[in-house]
Amino acid sequence: MVVSDHSGTVDLVSSPAALASVAVGRPVRGEFTYVVPDTLSGRLSPGQRVLVPFGRGTALGFFLGPASQPAEEGIKLKPIQRVLEESPSLPPDLIALLRFAAEHYRYPLGEVIRGALPPGLSKAEDEKEARPDVQHFAVAAVTETPPELRRAPAQSAALAYLLAVGGRAPVEEVAHSIPGGRETLKKLASRGLVRLEEQVLKPGVREGLAQGRPDLLTPEQDLAVKALHYSLDMGGFQTVLLHGVTGSGKTEVYLRAVEHALAQGKGSLVLVPEIALTPQLVGRFRSRFGSDVAVLHSGLKDRERLFHWQALRKGTVRIAVGVRSAIWAPVENLGLVVVDEEHDPSFKQEDKLRYNARDMAVMRGKQAGALVVLGSATPSLESLENVRRGRYRLLEMKHRVDDRPMPTIELVDLRIERPRDGGPVTEEAPILSQPLLDAMQQTLDRGQQTILFLNRRGHSTFLLCEVCGLTLKCSECDVCLTLHRAASRVMCHYCGLATPVPDRCRECTGPMLRLGIGTERVETEVAERFPQARVARLDRDAATSGERVTELLAAFARREIDILVGTQMVAKGHDFPGVTLVCVVMADTSLAIPDFRAAERTFHLLTQVSGRAGRGKDPGRVLVQTYNPDSEPVKRVLAHDFEGFAQQEMEWRQALAYPPFARMAAVRIEGEHPEQTAGVARMLGDFLSRRMPPPSAGVRMLGPALAPISRLRGRTRWQLLLKGPTHVALSPLLARLEAKLEDIPAGVKVTIDVDPGAML
Ligand SMILES: Nc1ncnc2c1ncn2[C@@H]1O[C@H](COP(=O)(O)OP(=O)(O)OP(=O)(O)O)[C@@H](O)[C@H]1O
Ligand SMILES: [Zn+2]
Question: Could you tell me which residue ranges the Helicase C-terminal domain spans (predicted)?
Answer without folding.
Answer: 500-653
